[in-house]
Please model this.
Amino acid sequence: MIDADKLKGDFPILARKINGKRLVYLDNAATTQKPKQVIQSITDYYENHNANVHRGVYTLAEEATLAYEEARKSIAKFINAKPEEIIFTKNATEALNLVMYAYGMNAVKKGERVTTSVMDHHSSFVPWQVVSKKKGAKLEIMYVDKEGTIPDSELSKLENAAIAGVVHASNVVGTLNDVQRMANIVHEGDGVFVADGSQSVPHMKVDVKKIGVDFFAFTGHKMLGPMGIGVLYGKYEILEKMEPFFYGGEMISEVHEKGSKWADPPAKFEAGTPNVEGVVGLASAIDYLEKIGMENVRKHDLRLLKYAMEKLDEVGGISILGPKNPEKRTGLIAFTMKGVHPHDLAQVLDSEGVAIRAGHHCTQPLHEKLCIENSARASFYIYNDEKDIDALCSGLAKAKKLFS
Amino acid sequence: MERILELYKKPENFGEIADAEVKKTDYNPSCGDMVQMFVKLDGEKVADAKFKGHGCAISTASASLLAGHIKGKKISEIEKMGQKEIFTLIGIDLSKNPSRVKCAMLPLTVLKQGIKEMK
Model:
């Protein structure tokens, strides 16, 4: 079992007071806080090892290159991929755009099917909408039921799709999608399946080989790592055939006046000086998470989900979005309170030191489908505990009283 | 704050003006709030102003107060209004809450767009 109180000590920011109150940070689906181990790894990189990677033949350059490539190995191992299948990007959005531009724009043909879901984050929705418009393909959108899950009847929209992109876990309804089953359906029609793992990888053990997806994107800052570092996993045989996304240094094997040849993956997709500090920080974050164990992270989420769902119900006037069964969701709960706008809720909670998210969470199509304009969201991580949920609920009770 | 809550629960100047010269609807893209502004003119001056829509306490109160404030004012005076005037109107300085500035400014932004389109 995770001792959240003990872990809190590793996160300097959690000692901060907000409006005179203890900071209760519940916006982890937006970004998590960083432990001192991660902050220290970045400081250590700059204080002791900084040099440009893959170039100089001197000690510092060798150390920086080693740190960068060792990090790639540990990140690959974390999701059961090969190191050469790991491409570093700026964030998950860039990873998904890379797939859209370097794969989608070449592979999708006129009249073909491109599939996504209504619960997808804009970053996993807009690229597929754009590629289908530009290539004259048909965009299919899988809809959700009242519980925010994709019913079996919608899965036929994946059949014969040239490309399908779906979130592994929803950032609003929290639903865990069966991406393995979805990928199988797409593969039967020789299409390619792209999963956005931004909300799943930080919370559970993910094995990309087992789920069988072709591409998998996630971001470092939602899993204790720094901002500005994202990861794209791609099956090597697909990466090999793809054209580059960016052109420049580092991604070439030969450059002549009349033409150039590309390097092998992953270098082919990493033009220019990379974010070495980000990669080092992310490797340190993964190290931290592996010491805890991803199975324990998942158990901790389930414990908090069960507790929070009960406590939110006791506040009264709250409707929770998404599946009622905690096992079917990742560690977040979006909700609405009757008569109180989510922005106002968030502000009242802030006055109590409680940080939550309010708005449409970059999922306008989902909110339209659920017939709500916006929602409030509390999202958990390893350092949250029952006391944090109690603080959330007493803040909500205060808001309810204020607006009644 | 009290006044804002009061206006949120019971907005003033709420409704439509069928024969308004200025009619404009817009959204706050970050939260989906919607505001419609209606202005009936009498020559250069505002004869009546109303608003409709759905939003948070701050955007609703801002729309209520703005509609009340502009009655009798000239169009050119409205065009000169900015953040400072809105903060004074709602009685809160939001300069340290950038995310709420959009809520407060939405009604004036919509109104100004409507005036531009009428011209």
Remarks:
- Chain B has a mean pLDDT of 92.
- The CA atoms of residues 37 and 51 of chain B lie 5 Å apart.
- The beta strands of chain B are 22-27, 34-42, 45-54.
